[in-house]
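Obj.: predict assembly geometry.
Materials: sequence records (below).
Method: joint structure prediction, all chains together.
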Amino acid sequence: MGKGMEHRAGSVMVVGGGIAGVQAALDLTELGYYVYLVEKAAVVGGVMAQLDKTFPTNDCSL
Amino acid sequence: MLTNADLLALDGKPGDFTARIRQRPRYIDADACTACGLCTQYCPKHHVDPYNEGLALTRPIHIDYAQAVPATYYIDPSSCLHLQYDTCQICVPVCQSHAINFNQQPEEIELKVGAVVLSPGFGKIDPATLEKFGYGRHPDVVTSVEFERMTTASGPFMGEVKCFSDGRHPKRIAFIQCVGSRDLGCDNGYCSSVCCMYAIKEALVAKEHDPEVDITIYYMDIRTQGKEFDKAQQRAEAMGIKFVRAKVADVTPWENRLQLTYATLDGHHEFEPFDMVVLSVGLESPRDARGIADITGIELNRYNFARSDTFSPLTTNREGIVVAGAFQGPKDIPESVTQASAAAGIAAGLLEAQRGQGIIHKTYPEEQDIGDEVRIGVFVCHCGINISSVVDVHEVEESVADMEGVVYHTDSLYSCSQDAIETLKKTIIEHNLNRVVIAACSPRTHEPLFQETLKDAGLNPCLVEMVNIRDQCSWVHAAEPQAATQKSEDLVRMAVAKARRMQPLPAQTVPVTPRALIIGGGIAGMTVALTLADQGFESVLLEKGRTLGGNLGLLNHVLTSKETANHLKKLVDRVRKNRKIDVLTGAELVQMSGFIGNFSSVVSTGGGRKEETVDHGVVVLATGGREHRPDGYLLGRNKKVLTQQELEKRLAGKARNRAPDSVVMIQCAGSRGDDLNYCSKVCCNHAVKNALQIKEINPDAQVIVLYRDMRTYGYAEDAYREARLKGVIFIPYEPDRKPEVYEAGRRLHVKFFDSLLQEEVDMTPDLVALSVGIVPEGTEELSKLLKAPLTDDKFFLEAHVKLRPVELPVDGVYVCGLAHAPKPVDETIAQAQAAAAKAAIPLVKGSVSVDPIVSSVDQDKCIGCGICVSLCPFGAIEMIKVDKKRKARTISASCKACGICASHCPTFAISMGGFTNEQIISQIEAFGQVTEQETAEV
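Observations (raw structure tokens):
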């Protein structure tokens, strides 16, 4: 089991990569912070990516 | 970005948290995978596809959907033959980029972070709840999420709605609302706040697919309380979708159809046959909510969502951890996006001192002078088989060989892959290229990548031209490979012609005045000012009235808190004491000019006696709203008729008869179709709150609420239930049969049709309280000053209702609170925090960078006619005086490069960077070249 250690001042962890998590991560980077986006699944996007008409394209890509 | 990752532990304190993460293996090397899809084609094992709600099969090695991020395939170990049985491994040799690696192991990572945003989303309703409606027992009972996948064009049935039982197209579809919501049977007492909207959307989509289909939505209350939501509901009704207020008791098979048993309001039982039944499932707390709470130490509410307070809706009990999205409480996309921005802003405020320290700034080599000789490199992409299965890529590539200026040409399997990008960079340097043409996919998605590569190679990023031979050739002409190849050649030839005339364009940046102007000193404006101050930015807060506080000052308490006055006082104190906030009361905006980063406003104070100029980089509109005063119902003519706000004041007073023995409340008085065509979102809660207050003071009082739909969404449903338990009577009325208020002698009468008793009732209550709705304040004047558009209902129109809910189409202008739409206090606060976070972005950057493709005016040619100024939709052109002559000038920072000005300029004085007349004409000529040849041949 490998064990990495990351240390970066001014960083924020966002847990959950649905639309809320992705938006928070994008805004935080724009506000000058390094973001770790931690997502349980293999892709980010969450439930919104399953929706059809509201978002015909996957607008929430990073 | 850490996917496949679980949070294991979180220790430490704000500013210094240590998070332990376990990352499960993908078994595919993300850097090597080109997402070509060959592995999925060869994988022999089936795998039920959770992305499609189990409606389709995929393979254990797959990608959820084509646009997935990261764009890397992964192996689901639960069904992979190798990972389960140590066999197979077919995928390993199939993968041409050798990306598959079964030796990957789970990894534990420790992260040091200053703050945490929790946005784990929501969970699924327990299947036991769905079984009550026949789900699992009959194949044609589906959930709304399954139905969504069914109607999706890119879904498993390519948008075809079919009954699972026999594949027929359903002619009659029923939607059952509130499945797993407003249901104490499954411990979900709350309203999920989204199901009414998506049911209407899905019904409309189904109707689009098959106009003949007959759709009925069975509901308790239609809760389309959001901005412009009622209009969608009206559209649905106009399209013939039926809405029936009823409680569905049972769904049973009946021959090859389904029979719905439902009870209507008047106590009748009805039966109705349907081909398909869609269950509008609610949002539940995430399945691992408990686990998240244990790991992070945050508290949950009784429904296992994160606990938070009305006045700090996103803050948890553990400092440094904020929540956003559905985990904070069930909510829709715009609300989630708003909260996400707000959470980002709060986290940024906590770590103000560390800002910018973690960001890695990329450096580029110095830009090379391109000299006079044109040296074009052409790169044609196969895009795996996406392009090359239709277009003859080699023929396209060969066609450029003899073109003027082309010194290098090649093809590539994936031009965008990591190694191809490296090769591109090396080739540019090696062959001394100074123009690059990439024939591949869409510049919308990939131009930034290639521009970046040019910068890495020491070239100006504007020296690349992309040709979209995928979307425009191989995709749309898939059946005609020859024509598609011919068209690709034409497009590439045109791009080469344009490339010959491309020139480097300098990057432009405009400095930003690090100060915000906030208009409106209510809870929204004050929250914006404080959130910005936390992030280290100054603001000027304009308040029209003499004191800060706005509408919150008029409220005695809110449903969730009695601390209104106390909180408001603290907030005003904090604003007054904060050195970064300059409060101007009795102040109004007179004039505003400038653009994002550089606004200049004239503000009048002291009732117009004094004027001062404020320079600022951004503007936040928090102008609020007020109670609407409808004409009807004897309001203002009979002193027994009050608004809810007046009733609230009376109840908070000391009068002995402040809560009289009988009160009738009338909801939507003047709203939803009368004077106001929208729902004001807060009145139902307000009525429930006042009704509970009456019952508290005078438990024997008779309180009757006449309503159209009780819109106590979210947790307010609990208060609605409490009011019913305490004996408050709720009676719905139809818009074509509104209650009447009249005077007869000295008595005040209310006459209404009781839909429960099915008869006309006339009563003489002591008081009538009207829920009157909210109108925005002063938005029309501001809209003209700022050139910011309004909705039909005079609220500010946001840049994108879903994804940019607090930004206006004019850059650098943000909106929050009632000026955006009616909303309760907690949503106003979150929105204000979001507006502050968004407004802080340009302030943090310190400069606004402008894409060099903006327009520019040749002042020698300009005749000062002003056509461009009147046509520009972004207010990005101004008229100036040059040597006493009127001339147009582009405000680069506001220009969106749409090209309207250039195409209308009568003297061709306006040119677009990267799209000059010269370049476009040469493209057109290049297209004509071969056409002429072809014509000559004929």
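Conclusions so far: DSSP finds 24 helices and 44 strands in chain B.
To do: check interface contacts against the pulldown list.
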